[in-house]
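Table S2 (continued). Query chain:
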Amino acid sequence: MQYFLDASFLIALFNEEDDFHQDSKRIIKDLMQRPYYFLTSNIVLAETVNLIFRVKGIKESKRLLKGFRESDIEGVYLTPEIFTQGYKILFKQKSKRGLNLFDCFHLAAMKYLGVSTILTYDERFKKEVKVIN
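Corresponding output:
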């Protein structure tokens, strides 16, 4: 099974002080009991590192980046096609309170890659794809 990891989930997974840290570790452990393939995008990684940098500083953001690189999570680079689809998803929304632009890029990447399940703590994805949290 393929799973796309959102920034909220990665932050919880790599940040021991996050309220969802233990929960995210349990989910990963449970999913690893069966065939799995974890993916995320360069945009998700950038969001994650940036937030940790802003909240915790350089040392923790470098630690997160190192942990990501040593993990078996595949990082996928977004293509111009995915960006175009992300903008289309954004502009199709009926409300400004829907998904933000970066979340639309994540959805576009998932569709492009054929991934239907996301690991996230962002409830707004529930209208679009299967969410595990």
